[in-house]
Amino acid sequence: MTTVQPHDATANNGRQAELNAARLLLDRMGISPADLLAASRSRAVVPTFGQYVPRVRQAVGEGTRRVYGSYWNRIVERWPDRRLDEISATDIRQLMEQTKANVVARRNDRGSRSAAEHLISALRCLYRHAEDDGLIDPGDNPARKVPKPRRLPSTRQAVPDERLAEIHHAAATTGDDPALDTLLLRLHVETACRRLALRPQDLDPDQCLIFLREKAGTVRWQPVSPTLMTHLHQHAAERHAARPEQLLRYASGRPITRRRYDHLWTRLGNQLPFVAAQQISTHWLRHTTLTWVERNFGFAVAHAYAGHTDGGGDGSSTSTYVRANVQEVAAALAALTGEPHPLARTAGR
To answer: 26 lies in a domain?
Structure first.
């Protein structure tokens, strides 16, 4: 005869009470145990990385594919036949360390933080789609459990006036297309824009505005000087840029690509040692212009000049009411270039 120990009896009673409570709850919800079994059987089969990554590639924009594409390739190479629900946070940490160890070191490398950050972002993008597709529960998402490396402060800064003049001179006197390169530099200095795809229909010559389409789908009309507007029109006419095609083109008529920027800064680095030593790039021009605007016209105008849309950046409700408008941006541009602008305010400063 088997004797039931007191603590076993207590455990059995507790288990039975939990089952009774669960049945009562299901009855009130109108759900039967058979319904739960059917739902479990009908849940989608979780795909492998080799199956799912191509689907996500087709569902994201070109910018996302460009940033995350190489990292998705690495993920598929590492786990081609493993399902998304078979990966743990430890697996991701191991891949992150391997990625950091294999990064080609550059002069501006800071512990391969950027590669590790982009890998985690690429995985989080994949798993966000998996959550939306009902393949992964948010609580089971391993990419959420691995923090990104803390981002260090940027080393970019404003380029001093004399150094900026040297950059313009080198661009205008070297290379296979000085006209294109000097146009690119002036465009980025005047507008503080990022790399862009400008079209002929994005020019408003009457108001001296260009239409910028930037990251995260943001768009804005940005003032430019009459001189720059004239050169943009001449460039489009001479290099046969037609609507709705890209405006900026090589002498052959082919549209430029990101490689033109890389080629430009590599050449400038060969001509000017400080460019190579500091790894100066187009984004430094954005820092240069926005720093000047902030010092001379205040934070609100610099915020609008940059095309930022976060409400003001200082975390206060006041920033909602002190946003600068395009006329104030045009006034800052007029002071920067020394040319009058049709939208610039002449009073109030």
So the answer is: no
